[in-house]
Amino acid sequence: MKDMIETKIPRAINWNRLDDDKDLEVWNRLTVNFWLPEKVPLSNDIQSWATLTDHEKQLTIRVFTGLTLLDTIQNSVGAPALMPDAITPHEEAVLTNIAFMEAVHARSYSSIFSTLCSTKEIDEAFRWSDENPHLQAKAKAILDTYAPGNDPLKRKIASVFLESFLFYSGFYLPMYWSSRAKLTNTADLIRLIIRDEAVHGYYIGYKFQRGYEKLSATEQQDLKDYAFSLMFELYDIENQYTEELYDQIGLTEDVKVFLHYNANKALQNLGFEALFPPEVSEVNPAILAALSPDSENHDFFSGSGSSYVIGKAVATEDEDWDF
Amino acid sequence: MSAPLPALVYFSSNSGNTHRFVSRLGQPAFRIPIENDQLPDLDQPYVLICPTYADGEGRGAVPKQVIRFLNDPARRAGIVGVIGAGNRNFGATFALAGRIIAQKCKVPLLYSFELAGTETDIARVRAGLEKLGGHLCSTAA
Questions:
Q1: What is the reported pTM?
Q2: Position B2 in a domain
């Protein structure tokens, strides 16, 4: 019997021979973007925090414990669950980076808490997150999909939905505060997390597409149906979660639009079309500006256009292209 | 008779977002290849659609393949405008490639969109390209 148990020894990873260039591209992106919460001067938000009402403070702490739970899941279960499904050794290495950064994100919220809140407030919020039925329901829906033996592509769907959709009911709030010039350092930290999650959702979605394109038309249809039904299930939970959190502050409808917008982007990461029509997905411009500050929205087309003069192909020096 | 639309040139990596956007525009377009050296030769004015791959500092925003395409003075001469693609989640570097190309080539940044674009983006870009086509026509006359 003993020769039935084989120890599988991985091959030493050779980064100079790539099966998929995207692995190195994303590895480079993630490692260059590495950061730690200590880099952000969170204590500059202490005064601003003091201007929030008790309810606003409680809401903010609760939202952040909800985000902590999702990061914890992705760190300890989600990203590791994707590793056995990796097609290339380099993909596995990228996933270790993703897993670690999720731990950094989860740790960051505790940095925010220790800077701004009392131990009593923090403990109360973690108790709330342990018991909140909507938060627990979304964690369960994702964890069920991650279970061992499950379809690798279904796992990737769930993972992209977590990275690109489920975080956003929470991310909305610091963007909202930032648009009102509150907790701006905290918002800077959250934007670093948002940037990382965007790469994660993009990369896992990309790997999903590589597996998906190898399937038969029937298998593809089944998987697509699965993706949309999981999205509906999660969307339903997110709606209730959003109402419970944001009704009292009057932001529920604004948050729901943000959910639609992000659900569409999550589906696009998987290579699928949008689910929610434009009229319910046009996000409050103040929130968009908080997401990408300093990057104006360019729509030359909607201007008169009459001012347009064809650029006389100014010869740019080739050395100019300092990329 | 409606004016001809400007030609479209685009780059899209294997993630396919920009490719899906261009497909939905429903007009022929030249794709700058990811790997081989067969760059499209163009003898007409074109609009370039380019995704962004910047790191947190904005480095590497314009894909190498697009740089190579634009480094040829003859090809660069035909560009009349650029459309940038990206993801707002990358903050200040959202659609940065579009802004960089606009500056380098001294052409307007016509529009920016996220990932594979929305229906609204498609409608706006289609209408915008028609307007631009008409303008190029009257300028040439």
A1: 0.91
A2: no
